[in-house]
Write a structure and sequence with these properties.
Blueprint lengths: L1 E6 L5 E5 L4 H10 L6 E5 L5 H13 L2 E5 L2 E5 L10 H6 L6 H9 L1 E5 L12 H9 L3 E5 L2 E5 L7 E3 L5 H11 L5 E5 L5 H12 L3 E3 L5 E5 L7 E4 L4 H13 L3 E5 L7 H9 L3 E4 L3 E5 L9 E3 L11 H8 L5 E5 L8 H8 L3 E5 L2 E5 L8 E3 L3 H13 L3 E5 L1 H8 L3 H7 L3 E6 L1
Parallel strand pairs: 2-14, 3-13, 9-10, 17-18, 21-22
Antiparallel strand pairs: 1-22, 1-23, 3-5, 4-5, 6-8, 7-8, 10-12, 11-12, 14-16, 15-16, 18-20, 19-20
Helix pairs in contact: 1-2, 1-7, 4-6, 5-6, 6-7, 8-10, 8-12, 10-12, 11-12, 12-13
The site of uridine-diphosphate-N-acetylglucosamine has 22 residues, from helix 1, helix 5 and helix 6.
């Protein structure tokens, strides 16, 4: 296992390139099943979750070659419709393979997913969406078998704009006969990127990124090449790293439009932020101001995936901030660890009240989930003394490409050790 050892207090200064988006590349890798041919995918981040999904694709019969940040997936021939169980239980987003497999092979068997311990995370919306397209679903002994003779387009209204359910339905509907509309669809930028990938493959999808998506099914797909969008959560994490150390960082290869809600909250806390075409600069000379209210919402609201990092910053702020987590019911595990570092946080159901303290103190803390782990690293960068963050390989490596090396290049004192 790996841990980070951080000696806090260094002011970050410099430039960092933001990697490709984890949440965009995972459904795109699943989509590469659909064409039964070659997909060349650029700007793929080097992450544990990407490796897990690539290994699953290989296990079911795809060939995948990786060179630098490019992955070539070849999904020709018959693939095994039995998705391997262990990785599905480890990584919830592998459920995304269902829609693509059902669309192409009309049958898929997969176990119920696991993933980050941040809430119950049911998959009812995925399953009801696939049923609406004609999938017959049988659940037994922890497995889901989904099959059909043919998929038919339908009008699907999601009770909640679930990101994964929107993607799974899109992945199946591109091969269905007729037109599918998804209403109350998730509007995250990763959905628009998936739409672009699918359309390059020959699909006919419009509306991705808005709350109504229209998919005209087709029966022929082609080879394609695509570059994944930058990771807006990674960008936000480096912005907080600059803020928490009173530093100045230029982020390259970002889409400022995608991080508007993060820019807005960091601006409120007193950071100076400038937007360029594909870059952002952030500088924060003094102790941050508390922001009144951080309420997580589906895009374009404040992302739940940035709640923990923002909380780390507010632990040091001048004043009191209130967080409301509306997306996941159990996403405050980092608070307990931040308290070990001297933070003043009270949790009441979905609310967290954070009273800023002058300085956090380095401590030995445990990362319990991906973004919470990143928040502890950020807290360590701003804290006095040494912080040790455990479980780096289990959680933080799932979603950050060489976080320690990139922070080091900005001047942080951070090393990765085995234990
Ligand atoms: C995706 C992101 C994750 C992000 C989340 C919310 C990926 C790989 N992961 O996760 O990083 O935190 O969006 O922005 O893209 N729900 C149901 N039934 C369902 C599906 C979801 O009740 O069938 C609930 C979930 O329990 C949760 C909420 O809907 O409370 C949001 O989940 P969803 O948008 O589906 O998130 P994910 O796709 O799992």
């Amino acid at each position: 296992m790996n841990k980070y050892v951080i000696n806090g207090g260094n002011r970050l200064d410099g430039e960092v390139k933001v990697e490709g988006s984890k949440n965009a590349v995972l459904p795109i890798l699943a989509a590469s099943i659909i064409n039964g041919g070659e997909s060349i995918i650029h700007n793929v981040p080097s992450l544990k979750d990407v490796n897990t999904l690539v290994n699953m694709l290989k296990t079911i019969g795809c060939t995948c070659s990786i060179e630098g940040n490019t992955i070539v997936v070849n999904s020709s021939g018959d693939l095994d419709i039995n998705i391997p169980e262990k990785p599905v239980r480890e990584m919830r987003s592998s459920i995304i393979l269902m829609g693509a497999m059902l669309g192409r092979f009309k049958k898929v068997k997969i176990s119920f997913p696991g993933g980050c311990e941040i809430g119950l995370r049911p998959i009812d919306l995925h399953l009801s969406g696939l049923k609406m397209l004609g999938g017959k679903i049988t659940e037994s002994h922890g497995y889901i078998l989904c099959e059909c003779d043919k998929l038919y387009g339908n009008e699907i209204h999601l009770d909640y704009p679930s990101v994964g359910a929107t993607e799974n339905i899109m992945l199946a509907a591109v091969s269905a006969e007729g037109i599918t509309t998804i209403q109350n669809a998730a509007r995250e930028p990763e959905i628009a990127d998936l739409q672009e990938f699918l359309n390059k493959m020959g699909a006919k999808v419009t509306g991705g990124g808005s709350s109504t998506i229209r998919i005209q099914g087709v029966n022929h797909f082609q080879n394609l090449e695509h570059t994944v969008i930058p990771d807006r959560i990674v960008a936000g994490t480096y912005m907080v790293a600059a803020a928490i150390t009173g530093g100045r960082v230029i982020l390259k290869e970002v889409i400022p439009e995608h991080i508007k809600p993060i820019i807005s909250k960091l601006g409120e806390s007193g950071c100076k932020i400038y937007r360029y075409d594909q870059a952002i600069s952030i500088s924060c000379g003094k102790r941050p101001n508390a922001v009144d209210f951080v309420k997580t919402m589906p895009y374009p609201g404040f992302p739940t995936d940035m709640q923990a990092q923002m909380m780390a910053l507010m632990c040091n702020a001048r004043g009191t901030s209130i967080f409301i987590e509306t997306i996941f019911e159990n996403r405050y595990k980092h608070a307990e660890e931040l308290i070990k570092m001297g933070a003043d946080i009270k949790i009441e159901g979905r609310a967290a009240i954070v009273k800023g303290v002058n300085k956090l103190m380095g401590a030995h803390v445990v990362s319990r989930d991906l973004r919470g782990g990143a928040a502890l690293v950020l807290a360590g960068l701003g804290a006095e003394g040494a912080t040790i963050v455990d479980n780096v390989d289990i959680h933080i490596d799932r979603g950050y490409d060489n976080l320690d090396l990139k922070l080091k290049s900005l001047g942080a004192d951070i090393t990765k050790d085995e234990y």
